[in-house]
Design goal:
Blueprint (H helix, E strand, L loop, with lengths): L2 H48 L11 H17 L4 E5 L12 E5 L18 H32 L9 H51 L4 H69 L6 H57 L2 H10 L14 H4 L1
Helix pairs in contact: 3-5, 4-5, 4-6, 5-6, 5-7, 6-7
């Protein structure tokens, strides 16, 4: 090989190294020039948006202040939309725990959180629902049994538990109530009509008094009649007081005392229907076969029958006691009221004013002042 060829071969590696180094330096210079150009391109935007030039005394000049306001307004309207954040909670160990979701900002305040219907599935709500369902079930079964018992009794097919002595007392009480209601109606009618008579007597007495003044030749005759009508009017008001007291006492006896006893009788009759319904149901089960299916039903029916039997016996005893006390109270009240009515009416028509006043004192009856219909609502407070 010649020397020229060897020298060229020996210099080739050196030239290759030089060429690679030069290429790397040129690539670095190009990247630096590109970064400088990008920084020079972004500099005006940062200067206009981020830098606030001030005057020598630290205040913003007018032109620069206007330019800054325009930049801020442009940033608010044309820049990125403001976001409001909402923290989304999740169960422990969930990968999405701690994620913050951003939602667009809406004018007029933050977006109100809208909650949908809350479904409660805890044990307490389940127990309450089951209890209500069980109550409705028991009520439906009891209503069906009682309705069937009533229909069978009316059709003459079902048996009925009857306490002859108690039933006769109840019938007497209902008949007594009807008769007392009729007595009360007649007493009110008498009071209304007699009140009209008393008002007529008062007007007649005033007319006699005026004529006694106008007619001198008949002065004494008109005067006597005027005094008589005024006295009758006064006694009539006294009798009205006694009649109204009689009406009030009888009304209390009929519409409160007797009515309360009849309500207790109604509860007793409902308990009797329930008792007979469960008794009939138990009898039908006892007549059927006894196996693993029917024995639990018979035991349950026996338990319900015992419960309603105790309730029926308790109400029957309560009604018997109330009827006894009612009879004693009725006799006592009506004895006093009938004595009052008789003495007051007899004294009025006998013209015995003193005896009529004694009747009112005996029964502690106070008459209302003339022209006063009743106490005001302030006096009643």
């Amino acid at each position: 090989m010649s020397e020229s060829t060897m020298s060229a071969a020996g210099e080739a590696p050196g030239l290759a190294a030089v060429s690679h180094t030069a290429a790397a330096e040129m690539h670095a210079q190009d990247s630096e020039s590109e970064s400088e150009e990008s920084e020079m391109a972004e500099a005006p935007a940062r200067d206009s948006a981020a830098e606030i030039p001030v005057t020598s005394n630290g205040e913003v000049s007018d032109s620069q202040e206007e330019h800054f306001k325009w930049d801020v307004k442009h940033m608010m309207t044309g820049g990125p939309t403001l976001k409001e954040t909402r923290i989304v909670s999740s169960s422990y160990g969930n990968p999405s725990e701690g994620i913050i979701e951003a939602e667009p900002y809406r004018a007029g305040g933050l977006k109100s959180i809208q909650s949908g219907p809350v479904v409660i599935t805890d044990d307490i709500s389940k127990n309450i629902a089951l209890e209500k369902l069980e109550q409705v079930k028991k009520w439906s079964i009891s209503t069906y049994k009682c309705t069937r018992q009533v229909l069978s009794e009316r059709l003459g097919r079902g048996s009925k538990t009857v306490d002859l002595e108690l039933e006769s007392q109840i019938e007497i009480l209902r008949d007594t109530k009807k008769r007392y209601e009729n007595l009360l109606r007649l007493a009110r009618q008498m009071a209304t009509q007699f009140y009209q008579v008393v008002q007529t007597q008062r007007q007649l007495g005033d007319a006699f008094g005026e004529l006694s003044v106008k007619s001198l030749e008949l002065h004494e005759e008109f005067g006597y009649n005027a005094e008589t009508q005024k006295l009758l009017c006064k006694n009539g008001e006294t009798l009205l007081g006694a009649i109204n007291f009689f009406i009030s006492s009888v009304n209390t006896l009929v519409n409160k005392t007797i009515e309360d006893t009849l309500i207790a009788v109604k509860h007793y009759e409902n308990a009797r229907i329930e008792y007979d319904a469960y008794r009939t149901d138990l009898e039908e089960l006892n007549l059927g076969p006894r196996d693993a299916v029917t024995i639990p039903k018979i035991e349950q029916s026996q338990l319900q029958f015992q419960i309603h039997k105790e309730k029926f016996d308790k109400l029957r005893g309560s009604v018997s006691v109330k009827l006894k006390f009612l009879d004693e109270n009725k006799i006592k009240v009506m004895h006093n009221q009938l004595l009052l009515f008789h003495n007051a009416v007899s004294a009025y028509f006998a013209g015995n004013q003193h005896q009529l006043e004694q009747v009112l004192k005996q029964f502690h009856i106070k008459l209302k002042a003339p022209g006063s219909d009743g106490p005001s609502w302030l006096e009643e407070q």
